[in-house]
Amino acid sequence: MEPAAPADARRKELGAFLRKKRERAVRAEYGLPPVGRGRVVGLRREEIAFLSGVSVTWYTWLEQGRDINPSRQVLDAVAVNLRLTAPEHDYILGLSGFAPAPREAPAAPEPVPEHVQHLLEALDPAPAFAVTSTWDIGAWNRGYEALFPGIASVPAPDRNLLRLTFTDPYVRGMLPDWEVTVRSFLADYRAEAGSHADRAAHVELVSRLRQDSEDFARAWDDHEVRRFASRARTFLHPVAGRLDFEQHQLVPSDAPTLHIVAYLPAPGSDTRERMAELVRQASAADAAD
């Protein structure tokens, strides 16, 4: 019997690896009930196929090591839905002949254009900030820093709107409707992410959040999609108390990869006065330092 060709060996190893990861997945972490005689570990092929956007037959062939050519986008989707670690993700890409996924460098976000920063500052004391296509927070004004005092000290790789909303206890404590808010955020983000679902930054964000937040994993697997619409937002600030805003989103025509998010004080509320006092207190504290 002739030895298997290198490509055949890689396909068989890929199939065996994916099958083992699927069989070890904990069903409850996907929001799925036990199957069979109360089995709580192991996903069905059709479940991973559905989550990854491929047919059951095609995914079965993938696990069987058949002579098929999965695209990088499909492998990225399988990696996300099997919740592979970064090294595991690179491993299956290598087995399929692709280069490892670029990793986010632990550096500050790319500088936001100066005129965008000026716009944010002009909105003070209303909180406003700018996010990238993967919702990394690249710039903010005094109002936003008064609302979230720790934003400047958050490590750059973690300064992401989705990540903070799902994993930061301070942010969660300020949202009286946290469950509704995070699902709305996720539906907005998913609508925007469709055009770059195969990009490394998006895959890395989803993979990390799956590992760090069971709430994110459950909400992400619901596949809700909704275009952003301006809406009312309420925060319960530990110093200023209840703050009522209207949330708006702008896209600069000369910086279309950025979105500006502004929380404008709700008409008829005293939020503008409360925010002005918060900003004044923060500025006084900075001057004292």
UniProtKB/TrEMBL annotation:
This is Helix-turn-helix transcriptional regulator. Residues 17-89 form the HTH cro/C1-type domain. It comes from the Bacteria. It comes from Sinomonas flava. SUPFAM superfamilies: lambda repressor-like DNA-binding domains (SSF47413). PANTHER family: BLL4672 PROTEIN, BLL4672 PROTEIN-RELATED. Pfam families: HTH_31, MLTR_LBD.
